[in-house]
Amino acid sequence: MAMAQACRFLHQILAGVERVHQTNVVHRDMKPENLLLDERECIKIVDFGLSNTFQDGQLLQTACGSPCYAAPEMIAGNQYFPPMVDVWSCGVILFALVCGFLPFEDQNHSELYKKILNAEYEVPNFISKEVAGLIAGMLTTDPAARMTLEDIRKHVWYQQIPEASLKDREDDQLDEAILDQLDSYGFPREYAMKCLQNNKHNHVTTTCP
């Protein structure tokens, strides 16, 4: 995959993760299979079956998700700060985007867990030092030292292209077809417009195609 395209996808993935975290939800199963592309080739995060809510400062302990993408603190059975496990998984996704394979793979689960706990992975020589450094920052075993979303956005590799997570239309330009469809479902047009413009998360906005 072209580096600019991988970078664009990373912008959109992180924007989605950030929005999820702002609602005090952690996904806990971030992986390529749960990232869909719409007709504009924009990322949509799906499958929140393993997600959970959390309060500010709260630690969770349930280990879940796909082992190859799971953070070491989760693998170790430790309590963990929810947002940072999603950051680790995004680091694995970024590695897969630019390298074409996963950083942590082993048919023996014990060996796989050992690699994850020690962040043992090999960086191919065809990727740049900049993206390798970004990946290393996201795949830091100590969650307190791991890059945050803010740190990632400041990184030189992330900033190689203009911010790509913004909508390509103005906020006040709502899709008339969607509004008509919502109206046909029994959601009054004016109420639907207010919910969408105010970024409300309710039965109306989750019905939008």
What does this entry show, briefly?
With 209 residues, the protein is mainly alpha-helical.
Describe the 3D structure.
The chain is mostly helical and 209 residues long. It has two domains: 158 residues, Transferase(Phosphotransferase) domain 1 (Transferase(Phosphotransferase), domain 1), CATH 1.10.510; 32 residues, no CATH class. It is built from eight helices and four strands, in the order αββββααααααα. It is globular and about 55 Å long. The relative contact order is 0.12. About 2% of the residues have low confidence.
Low-confidence stretches: 168-172
- Helical proportion? 40-55%
Work out the number of β strands.
Answer: 4
For this structure, what is the CATH class of the largest domain? Answer: Mainly Alpha
Structural class: mainly alpha
- CATH domain fold name of the largest domain: Transferase(Phosphotransferase), domain 1
Question: How would a textbook summarize the main sheet?
Answer: 2 strands, antiparallel
Domain Protein kinase: 1-158
Protein name: SNF1-related protein kinase catalytic subunit alpha KIN11 (AKIN11) (AKIN alpha-1) (AKINalpha1 ) (SNF1-related kinase 1.2) (SnRK1.2)
Keywords: ATP-binding, Kinase, Nucleotide-binding, Serine/threonine-protein kinase, Transferase
Subunit structure: Monomer.
